[in-house]
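yo

u said u wanted the structure for the complex thing, so here. seqs first:
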Amino acid sequence: MAFWLIKSEPGVFSIDDLARAPGRRTQWEGVRNYQARNNLRAMRKGDRCLFYHSNASPSGVAGVAAVLREAYPDPHQFDSKSKYHDPKSDPRDPRWSLVDVKFLRRFPALVSLETIKADPKLAKMVLVNNSRLSVQPVTDSEFRRVLALAGEKD
DNA sequence: GCCAACGTTGGC
DNA sequence: GCCAACGTTGGC
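structre next:
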């Protein structure tokens, strides 16, 4: 099993929104960055995702989701009314992908970015070193460390 | 709301 | 292929 971190602005879509969604699942739509897209395409069913709240006060990891369905073409790229529309994407070779994720759990308390930055064991996290990447890999030990900081067991 | 960091676009 | 201009992300 692999581990990832996925970002969402809680004002747009929070972990509570995921927990309330039908089937507690959602399409992880709108990724329009190639590195993030490649990470989506590398996800496998059952992989775990840290659900990160960005542009929040404070920002931080709010809980855990799981990959339910592996990457397939993001339908919004072909919808001219969508804000995710990409007129340059060819339907025969779609440029953008998404995965479906499902809610696993919400942490009792957010693991804030400040906490993560202050933790020597998390100094190499992509989050700390490339804060703009919206879908990023997380190592096994980083994942377990964030769970520990959240007061959770594996 | 500001602005640094970063990715993308397009002229040449 | 270089790089300046521009747009976006996201912390603060």
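Helices of chain A lie at 15-20, 34-42, 113-118, 126-129, 140-149. Residues 140-149 of chain A form the longest helix (10 residues).
cya
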